[in-house]
Protein 1
Amino acid sequence: MAGKVALFGASGVIGQSVAQALRSQGRPYRVVGRSRRSLEAEFGADPLAEVATWNPDDPASVRAAARGVDTLIYMVGVNYWQFHLHPELMRKTLDGAIAEGVQRVLLIGTVYPYGLPQAPSVKEDHPREPHTFKGRMRKAQEDLLLAEDAAGRIHGTILRLPDFYGPGVERSFLHRAFLAALDGKRASLIGPIDPPHEFVYVPDVGPVVTALMDEPRAYGRAWNLAGAGVTSQRALVDEIFRQAGHPPKVMTMGKGMVRLAGLFDPFMRELVEMLYLLKTPVLMDDSDLRGLLGHVHKTPYAEGIRQTLAALREQRAANLSPAPAATGRPHPAP
């Protein structure tokens, strides 16, 4: 079992899932991010969590964040319009981690490096031939880690995920459908929505990450984690509306509308080059991962939708509740 674990980029939904898995195992962990205030808000109540901030542009800060760590889970995000930073941040993190004697790095990756799928089901040995800028940057990020592993300076592995959804996941193709379904309104989705697709339920990711990082045979290569079966956006949206008690109402945005929205929204502008994933999706074969770990739990889509709707209802109810009385306690330091 790995010793001290650090979650670099812990504030995202995947980081929270990994933290929950570690918490359930009673294992201490360090959360690393730029903002102490947000880390304290998310993890400060957990006695197992150690909060640390970093500035990736300062080598001493990177080393301090990695000090005393055996395994580093790398989930550092960047804005969609700043993907050029992915290999730069990985290089700086690896330099600091190696200098501090970190033994293992697990990178949470994506399907982007595969490029256009050349098979109906994609295994890890599928060629990595990205035709998009974002795919090239993600591939460069992977290559840096795998090169350091091959050179024997650190053990590295990659877990590639498809699109995901779940409680708190706002950057999902399905998020607008959840909100619209609760209100009985029309969901504005990015299409096409009928081709095959797969999604991972975010709470399922953490246990896979902790199992993978503890498995010595995992290192030196990448692993796929497929969704809970092949489905489609439309099938899931129909189920979301059904569970919310409303007939499905959908409007789809094609490439032209996304491009137009991109004139005003940098995220939508950068999304255009990735729309190929909706027409020619990368459907992953994770039989190698299941063979390695023995069991990989995947929440069925209907249950994941039920839990996501319940979390949204709970969040809305909390927002409508009166604010608690002031305690007089000081706010945490920024």
Protein 2
Amino acid sequence: MHIDILTLFPEMFSGVFHSSILNKAIERDKFSYDLINFRDFTENKHMKVDDYPYGGGAGMVLTPQPVFDAVSAVKKKRQANPRVILMCPQGETFTQQKAEQLANEDHLIFICGHYEGYDERIREHLVTDEISIGDYVLTGGELGAMVVVDSVVRLLPEVLGNKESAPEDSFSTGLLEHPHYTRPADFRGMKVPDILMSGDHAKIRGWRKEESLKRTYRRRRDLLNNYSLSKEEQEILERIKESE
């Protein structure tokens, strides 16, 4: 996968892309990226990429020319038909399912805006996806793009050390993940559940399933609305409800 990020502040990405899993993925050639300052594409003699909105109003709006030309240059260089993603608070809320969808692509372009917003023609004629990471407003799209890239790249083959890690994550199965424990078995009187040390893998799987359902029911009940419960899971959930 190759990722291009159009931003006015490329320096914001250096720490994130050269740390932890993302850095390892780059070193293993699992993905590559380029940071493009779309100010370099402006035809404005003062290097401006924003202007006052027609009709009046507060703030400045990103002009279409630099963004269109930057995307065009990236596409020409890669000779590909990428997904062009606009980071925007009006976009669809980012989910694990969206991350899994994007992880199947070979080329992604992210557009990170600043100021009051984008010229609408960018939204209407250039992008394929609009993504928001939540119902709040940031000073720019860079932080949102970092979140999406991290979520997508970790799903690429062989990026995570354990191939079972990503499929078992919270939201990947449709439920929240079960609790985890590690050594010591007894930490200051707080003990690991006996079943996890029993060696009975069937009972451990059952315990984890029940704990996953219990945690989802108690913390994110809304997720169950779109989750297809098996007969076994329905019985477990009924027991959980009865115990409340």
Protein 3
Amino acid sequence: MEPVDVAFAVVGVGALLAGILPRALEHRPLSMPIAFLVLGMLVFLLPTGLPSPDPLRWPQVTAHLTEIGVIVALMGAGLKIDRPLSWRRWSSTWRLLAIAMPVCIAAVALLGWWWAGLAPAAALLLGAALAPTDPVLAADVQVGEPTDVEDSEDEVRFALTSEAGLNDGLAFPFVYAAVAVATAGLAPRAWFVDWFSVDVLYKLAVGVGGGLLIGWLLGKLFFHAPTQVRLARHAEGFLALAATFLAYGVVEVLGGYGFLAVFVAARAIRSAERTHEFHSVLHDFAEQVERLLTVMLLLIFGGAVVGGLLAPLTWQAAGVGLALLLVVRPLVGWVSLRGAPGRPAEHWVIAAFGIRGVGSFYYLAYATTKADFPQADLLWATVGLVVVVSVVAHGITATPVMRLLDRTGERTGTIPRQGPTVPRQMTRTQGRRCSSTASS
């Protein structure tokens, strides 16, 4: 039995289940990520001859696989948000990014250094890697497919989707700060000026500016080009991948943050012709690719867990990870949302469902290829534990919690009525979308 043949069979089974499970599990307190995490564990426990997917041994491969998964998810997230960008309408997002994320990074770094005994650079990297909420594993708490109604999204799903779309790029400066501390030491004068001018100001500016420009150009090509070359007329979904890789690649070549550019480009494409049905075509294709990549990454992650990824874990490090999920993020997230749109119950749900996942693996793999971090195995074990707990805990609670809130009839952006709430001015297509979303 050749391992490559086993791999083909596993991928085939996984792809088939990726089409079946979302429908089979939509009314149950169980998520697709849980199912594939368990399946990955079982596959790699069997005597199949498959090599152990150890991220410490293959950091470059890990970085590139997770990188692809994240950028495809970011394109899908940017396309499916209906709400136009504005300071007031995105108030919850700005609060989560400007307050909750930096405070969570600082809290995890402090706990990692003081409580878990990590070196300062490793503690800062742990905080930065665990900072972003995940656009890949959070489908159950995100908005549905694009519609032509700007106010169709409730505050909970909108805030979690937009936060996940932006914080994957905005966490990067903190990762670079950890790399700088690991290579140059704690003295800020040795690295702060270069870090702030390049890794913060320049890379953020290029990420936002490059994403806007590429998205604007693609929007013109998709919707406003001469009829013969107007790509929206042909409804070809693979152009979502073209937009993803173009925005990411060009901005990375220019030295900017590609994660940020992909999400910004998606928002620029959406704003070029907000109500065009081509957005649904692009989003659906990106979502299908994202689902296949998620299956592959979760199978590999399950194999890493049974292969000893968590073996170096100490109870102090485990305490830091659990503190982030159960105390730090919920409390800091709730405080940051004081005064934001929505009711207190909605704020608690937004704060509690800061799902960690593939983005954390990418940042950790990327940083460990750029500098030598002490206790790297402990970092991987801690992040692995956090993702396992997040996948299981959030996967079990997402469906009942979201359905309970949907039944209240008082959620931001919805009209009170008997039974599950529906958005205003709903079309037939949007009704199907909202019904599906409410049940997930």
